[in-house]
Amino acid sequence: MRFSVILLSLAASALAVPAAQSPDLSSYALTRRADPSLTGYLGVFFLGDKPSVYFYLSNGNNAISFKSLNKGSPVINPTQGTQGVRDPSIIAGGGNEAGRKWYIIGTDLNIGRTNWDAAQRTGSRGIFVWESTDLINWTGERLVQVEDTTAGMVWAPSAIWDEAKGQYLVHWASKFYPASDSQHKGSPSAIRIRYTYTKDFRTFEAPQDYINKSPTNIIDLDILPLGNNAYARFMKDETAKTVFTEVSTNGLFGTWTRPAGASAIIASGVEGPAVYWDNQVAGKAHLLLDFYGSDGYRPYESTDVTSGRWTASDRSGFPKNLRHGSVLPINATLLAAVSNKWA
Ligand SMILES: *[C@@H]1O[C@H](CO)[C@@H](O)[C@H](O)[C@H]1NC(C)=O
Ligand SMILES: *[C@@H]1O[C@H](CO)[C@@H](O)[C@H](O)[C@H]1NC(C)=O
């Protein structure tokens, strides 16, 4: 395996602890509006047993109807690490990269060359990164090591631009072995969500815990900004094999609650939640849930994200066997460029 150099900041950055404040969701006004400049959606996924990045484009401005691009062939094939990528996540640039830069990051895992036990004990501790200035030309492939040798694996990285910090918050799932168990043959910690910050997906601060619900295993985090410093997040309980949601009205490090009840779930037997706003209907969001034992992603929707209530959408336009990925709303210029290149 070949890893890019990692520069870990040795000074642990202080985790800001906001004043305890219980969220009052009833008085929270959802400010998210429809955006008439957004005319389509670009989806990036891996397929069934094929660990490459496949692109899909919405049919018109329909958030839950997609067609494959590039005649169904991958757009990105990794050349480093295990030479397999799962869980691709497409990240829109923020700050001075807004509208000028996009990243795709993903898990370094080719399960055809290993098995699920080994993949979690001595799996890759890096994340794949590609970048683009036009959504067409994807360059700069790198495998950036983000955890030290006590980690068993790094799974399902994703990221969100943190306006307050002026950097990308990157997160993923890892479990850890005691330093004395260098072969990772014993019992690990529960799987928890880790995070760090980066400006460029090249150098990362030292990672810290973001979500630790030990002894419950948590993987596959995705975050939806709601406006006004509020967020909804979605994750898989890898112990119960369910996906659930939490909401914070006081920031990414605020107080998170499960709005539909302490043990409320959205669905079971699913993973890889991928969430995005509807371009046309104010306050409506879409959530893809990967039925990993069946036919992959199925769309769900909500017009009240803060309620935690989601219902299954019409699946007639949604392709089968798309696996854990993500969806990016795009405007007419980008849609035309992607369509001209691959449709
Ligand atoms: C779409 O976004 C791109 C990238 O930010 C920008 O260059 C272009 O002008 C936008 N097009 C429209 C129609 O808004
Ligand atoms: C793709 O991007 C790379 C890096 O920015 C650049 O060197 C190359 O010329 C680009 N290729 C095309 C076809 O635009």
TrEMBL record:
Keywords in alphabetical order: Signal
CDD domains: GH43_Bt3655-like
Listed InterPro entries: GH43_arabinanases, Glyco_hydro_beta-prop_sf
SUPFAM superfamilies with a match to the protein in the record: Arabinanase/levansucrase/invertase
Range of residues in the leader sequence: 1-16
The organism's place on the tree of life at top rank: Eukaryota
Protein name (record): Glycoside hydrolase family 43 protein
Organism the protein comes from: Lojkania enalia
